[in-house]
Amino acid sequence: MTASHSVLAQLNTGERAVALIGGDATDANLRRYLHGIPGIDAVGLEQRAAALGTRSIKTSSKKWAIDKIISLIDLTTLEGADTPGKVRSLVGKALTPDPGDPSCPRVAAVCVYGDMVPHAVAALGSAHSAGTDAGVNVAAVATAFPSGRASLAVKLADVRDAVEAGADEIDMVIDRGAFLSGRFAQVYDEIVAVKHSCRRADGSAAHLKVILETGELSTYDNVRRASWLAILAGADFIKTSTGKVPVAATLPVTLSMLEVVRDWHRLTGAKIGVKPAGGIRTSKDATKYLVTVAETVVEEWLTPGLFRFGASSLLNDVLMQRQKVTSGHYSGPDYVTMD
Q1: Which residue of 84, 116, 311, 336 pairs with 316 in a disulfide if CB–CB is 3.0 to 4.6 A?
Q2: What CA–CA distance (Å, rounded) separates 263 from 131?
Q3: How do residues 188-204 score in pLDDT, each as one tens digit?
Q4: pLDDT in tens, 133-167
Q5: How much is the average pLDDT of 32-47?
Q6: Could you tell me which residues come within 8 angstroms of residue 6 by beta carbon, excluding any fewer than 6 positions away?
Q7: Phi first, then psi: what are they for 275, rounded to 5°?
Q8: Which domains does the chain possess?
């Protein structure tokens, strides 16, 4: 461990940011720091992502990969037509993905709008935040998701309501307009304020996932800078997308974010999670992400505390593939529930 690494590891989030950017989190200091980060070779990044995407997994490891994918899913419903009944059904599927096979693991979390959190918590019962890998968390999207177009007071009230209702995780969106306009301090300050609002009365805190909405950031360099900015401000996870724009998670974008997480760990010793969300629908696609994580950081990141898939339809395909690996054949179309 280098001296700088040792010092940074002992600082709190705010102190660490000041030490790294050379002063308070002003637009000027943040711009100098973020624009001093080496740019991304887009061709090289895409070639590496494509190469990782072609890696195969041995037949003997497919069952492990499938179960790992299930255990990393944030099973999601984020529709205007969501109802308490739909959320209860989602929780049932999260707890027992395959009713015919009790060995099937549970998912990591259910992800819902803030007003649906009490219904998710009630449906989970004793399985909510069990404190073990067997528990299922409740994640709530907040801060005027998906646009982020609201006053800071409204955004923070959104977070507090979800946390008070029992959310274990908050998935916030950054103000992409502010970021793209170079108002880095505004984005930083909002993340800091949201992080503070994740605190509970007992001193614990909901984990904060910061959604970059990478499809609106246009370039890999912007994705890298936004990733660093979110982590400097205190993100526990960085997340690609809301799933509400045409371009959601892609393997190159996720690779670029994993590289930031790797570099941050080398610099500070701290571990930050990554969550690709939106557009990952098949077991084959999800496996590419497992390989990319293992090759970019280490396999230690393949735990719910450090990696998630944000998905609504992925689980069904994974369950079908799991059934094929287990029994040697696919079941009929009614083998899984259609959400």
Answers
A1: 336
A2: 29
A3: 999 999 999 999 999 99
A4: 568 999 999 999 999 999 999 999 999 999 999 99
A5: 97
A6: none
A7: -135, 100
A8: 3-327 (3.20.20.70)
Q: Using an 8 Å Cβ cutoff, are 289 and 254 in contact?
A: yes
Q: Which residues contact 13 (CB under 8 A, 6 or more apart)?
A: 195, 232, 233, 234
The C-alpha atoms of residue 183 and residue 28 are separated, in whole angstroms, by 9
Does residue 184 have a pLDDT over 70? yes
pLDDT in tens, 98-124: 999 999 999 999 999 999 999 999 999
Residues labelled catalytic: 171, 239, 275
Q: Tell me the average pLDDT of the chain.
A: 93
SS3 annotation, the chain: CCHHHHHHHHCCHHHHHHHHHCCCCCHHHHHHHHHCCCCCCHHHHHHHHHHHHCCCCCHHHHHHHHHHHHHCEEEECCCCCCCHHHHHHHHHHHHCCCCCCCCCCCCCEEEEEHHHHHHHHHHHHHHECCCCCCCEEEEEECCCCCCCCCCHHHHHHHHHHHHHCCCCEEEEECCHHHHHCCCHHHHHHHHHHHHHHCECCCCCECEEEEECCHHHCCCHHHHHHHHHHHHHHCCCEEECCCCCCCCCCCHHHHHHHHHHHHHHHHHHCCCCEEECECCCCCHHHHHHHHHHHHHHCCHHHCCCCCECEEECCHHHHHHHHHHHHHHCCCCCCCCCCCC
Q: How far is CA 168 from the centre of its chain?
A: 13
The pair of structure tokens assigned to 181 is: 């306009």
**Amino acid identity for residue 255 in this structure:** L
Encoding tokens for residue 50? 């494509």
Cβ(311)–Cβ(275) under 8 Å? no
The amino acid at residue 186 is Q
Is residue 137 within 8 Å of 308, Cβ to Cβ?
Answer: no
What is the reported pTM?
Answer: 0.94
What pLDDT score was predicted for residue 135?
A: 84
